[in-house]
Specification:
With 739 residues, this protein is an alpha+beta fold. Among the domains are: 45 residues, no CATH class; 135 residues, Beta Barrel (OB fold (Dihydrolipoamide Acetyltransferase, E2P)); 97 residues; 163 residues, no CATH class. It has 17 helices and 29 strands. Strands 4, 6, 21, 22, 23, 24 and 25 form a seven-stranded antiparallel beta sheet that branches. Strand 22 and strand 23 form a beta hairpin. Helix 8 runs antiparallel to helix 11 and helix 9 runs antiparallel to helix 10. The longest helix has 22 residues. The N terminus is likely disordered.
């Protein structure tokens, strides 16, 4: 995602200076908190540097003949990731290896989030530690609710015809009735007429002689059957129909009987009332089984399962315990109270549980992993902010040193949190004083609870070992699979895509990383692992898509920090690209570069019309490459093909952002991905250019995230700021070109 730049003004620079002065003063006031007995520097670092951590100076090489010095390993001063147990030559540059004495390799920060407190500071903060341990967690879930009528056992008596209720045999609620018991008697002219029709139909049948035509006899029989069916549909039973036929006269009133036995829980009419067809007269409920409906908090959701047995007590029946099975968990959370309904089906012999009675339950749930226990930390150890949770882990080798970590928490279980990822059994975490430790991290501009990314991203790191850089593209394809799955509807496929990315991440070997690159990779690998775990455990597509977006932002940060496609190629040396494209394609890319350089010059001069024309020329040149040249790259190996796909994606992103734009701001936003694409193209597949080509970096572009560009000479002309800061930037190297 391209970030829009905020144009800095000169007053902003003064405000920035005042801001850093204020931070320095705060650090001075709180200086006694930080550093160890060794007197570590606590001055906050500038953005893009050491994030408040001391980066140790190169340790003096131990002379082989020194007495009392024991060599830890042999390394190369030009390639510090080379660590060999014996002296010799560097396998990369053939320089003599130098020894590093034991103890000299210590003292380096172990994390970007490392914080050290003096003994006095620890005493004032009252720092306390507790171990990360496995335990069988017993969770007490407290529920409050009430008894309600089982809706499935309710029956209703309604008027099937309009009429007058001349008599109510049951005129109070709460009474018990049996199935078939007469509840009321109704007078209805419609019922009287229907009985008369049946009697007349019967008379017509009996008046027909045996020698009457068959058609006439059949018609009379059908008329009688229709009259019987009409009475049946109006509520008469078969026995009552026969009674009418035997009596020979219509009955004035029809009895209304109970369809089922139970308790009358509602009476909606009075004696003598006139009712219409369909009017509800009585409601009857069977109270031999009732519902216990509880309100549960959102945090209790992980501990409630369908079919689980729950023991509860009723306020009106102290000392008695009842048991019911969970038959319903409300799929919707009440947004006002953040609760949901849980329903139990409860046997109620003797009717002791009354509808409306208050009940309460304390459900004990044992949370067991497959091994019988789960990893837990005390609740006070976690600093929870939204979806993130931070803990501080004590360094067992350095008293007073604490490493901050973002972890993935499971549900809360009483006084403990279940840990899903990020901690190991036996580690000591800060359970008291962690807010003060986090405050110290904030003063150091390190990643913390309030500053998730610390002082900001450092920009592309230098000195990253090529063996590590060559591994990073292995994350790109699984990441694309995650994004593709997030656009679909198959939840299980999305989970599997996250799991595959997790395997690719676990397969990376970071043993060659040292110093600052090692710290940054440790931080990013931790964050990536957390996002992957959350995505792998997603319970809905909405949740999975959210974690996919978060993960994509992390991967973009990895690409910006390590810039692996460009740096891996650059590390190969200043010669020709490792896997060049065909000469025709390199020439076409040269035309794209020429249009790009015209755009860079126009942006540096703040010339919007010229920049618009250059954007159009750049797009035309790129379309020519897309139409004619890309098919010719099919024969390249997988590494070059992957680089080409990344080049094309960034070019399209930048051109789309600049298309039909008239403002310099919009065109500068799209200029960044185009610059990255051409830098990567020059370092991987090759670009024809007559003359030199320099790569320049501006650390202040896009709110201090930094941005690169290309220009044909080392005289800096900043395209991101124009006349505001034309000379802002540093030449970071000369880019190889094809002649």
């Amino acid at each position: 995602m391209t970030l829009l730049r905020k144009s800095p003004a000169r007053p902003a620079s003064r405000r920035l200076a005042w801001l850093w002065l204020l931070v320095a003063l705060l650090a001075f006031v709180g200086g006694y908190w930080l550093g160890g007995s060794g007197g570590h520097d606590t001055t906050p670092a500038a953005p893009g540097h050491d994030y408040g951590h001391e980066h140790p100076h190169a340790a003096p090489a131990a002379t082989p003949g020194d007495s009392g010095s024991e060599v830890a390993y042999w390394t190369c001063s030009m390639h510090p990731w080379i660590r060999l147990p014996d002296p010799g030559l560097c396998p990369i540059c053939a320089m003599d290896l130098i020894p590093v004495a034991k103890g000299q390799q210590d003292g380096a920060p172990v994390s970007l989030r490392a914080v050290t407190l003096t003994p006095a500071a620890r005493a004032l903060a009252r720092v306390e530690l507790a171990p990360v341990e496995r335990r069988a967690v017993d969770v007490a879930t407290r529920l409050l609710g009430r008894i309600e009528v089982d809706e499935t056992s309710q029956a209703y008596i309604t008027a099937r015809v309009a009429g007058r209720l001349d008599r109510l045999h049951v005129n109070v609620t709460g009474g018990t009735v049996k199935a078939g018991q007469v509840m009321a008697e109704i007078y209805s002219p419609e019922l009287v007429a229907a009985q008369a029709e049946l009697l007349e139909a019967r008379k017509a049948v009996t008046r027909l002689s045996a020698d009457a035509p068959a058609l006439l006899r059949d018609t009379a029989a059908r008329t009688e059957r229709a009259a019987r069916d009409k009475l049946r549909l109006l509520g008469f039973s078969a026995a009552e129909v026969e009674t009418v036929l035997r009596r020979g006269t219509p009955a004035d009133h029809m009895p209304l009987t109970a369809p089922a036995g139970g308790v009358v829980v509602r009476r909606d009419v009075q004696e003598g009332a006139y009712v219409a067809t369909g009017t509800r007269l009585f409601a009857i409920a069977d109270l031999s089984r009732v519902w216990a409906v509880f309100e549960a908090y959102e945090a209790d959701l992980p501990w409630l399962r369908m079919g689980a047995a729950v023991r509860f007590e009723a306020t009106g029946l102290p000392g008695e315990t009842f048991t019911g099975a969970v038959t319903f968990i409300d799929p919707v959370i009440d947004t006002m109270t953040r609760t949901f309904r849980v329903r139990l089906d409860v046997a109620n012999p003797g009717g002791r549980l009354k509808p409306g009675m208050l009940v309460h339950a304390v459900q004990q749930t044992a949370v067991d992993a497959q091994a019988g226990q789960v990893l837990t930390i005390p609740v006070t150890a976690a600093l929870v902010t939204g979806t993130r949770a931070i803990v501080y882990v004590a360094d067992p080798n350095t008293p007073g040193s604490y490493e901050g970590r973002e972890i993935v928490l499971g549900p809360r279980a009483g006084d403990h949190y279940v840990v899903r990822q990020g901690l190991a059994e036996g580690e000591q975490v800060v359970v008291r004083g962690n807010f003060l430790v986090d405050s110290a991290a904030q003063l150091m501009a390190a990643p913390s609870m309030m500053l998730p990314e610390g002082a900001g991203e450092p920009g592309a790191l230098d000195g990253v070992p090529p063996p590590f850089l060559r591994q990073l593209p292995a994350l790109d394809a699984p990441m694309e699979a995650v994004l593709a799955a997030a656009r679909g509807t198959d939840l299980e496929a999305g989970r599997q895509a996250f799991a595959a990315l997790g395997q690719a991440l676990a397969g990376l070997d970071a043993a060659t990383l040292v110093d600052e690159p090692a710290l940054h990779w440790k931080e990013l690998a931790m964050l990536l692992g957390n996002d992957i775990r959350l995505g792998r455990d997603s319970r809905s597509m909405t949740e999975l898509r959210w974690h996919a977006r978060e993960l994509d932002a992390r991967m973009q940060r990895v690409r910006r920090t390590f810039d692996y496609a460009a740096q891996a190629a650059q590390a190969a040396g200043p010669g020709e690209p490792g896997t060049p494209a065909p000469p025709a394609v390199q020439a076409q890319l040269g035309e794209v570069l020429a249009a790009y350089l015209r755009l860079q010059d126009a942006l540096a001069r703040d010339d919007a019309p010229a920049a618009q024309a250059a954007v159009q020329g750049l797009e035309d040149a790129w379309r020519a490459v897309s139409r004619e040249g890309l098919d010719g790259l099919d024969g390249l190996d997988g590494e070059a093909g992957a680089a080409l796909e990344a080049i094309a994606a960034q070019m399209e992103q930048g051109l789309m952002a600049m298309q039909e734009q008239t403002s310099l701001e919009a065109m500068r936003a799209g200029f960044q991905p185009v610059s990255n694409a051409l830098i990567q193209a020059a370092l991987t597949v090759g670009i024809v250019h007559q003359g030199d080509l320099f790569r320049v970096h501006c650390p202040m572009a896009f709110d201090y995230t930094g941005a690169d560009w290309l220009q044909p000479d080392p005289d800096i002309r900043n395209p991101y700021f124009g006349h505001l800061m034309p000379g802002c930037g540093d030449v970071t190297g000369q880019v190889p070109v094809a002649r």
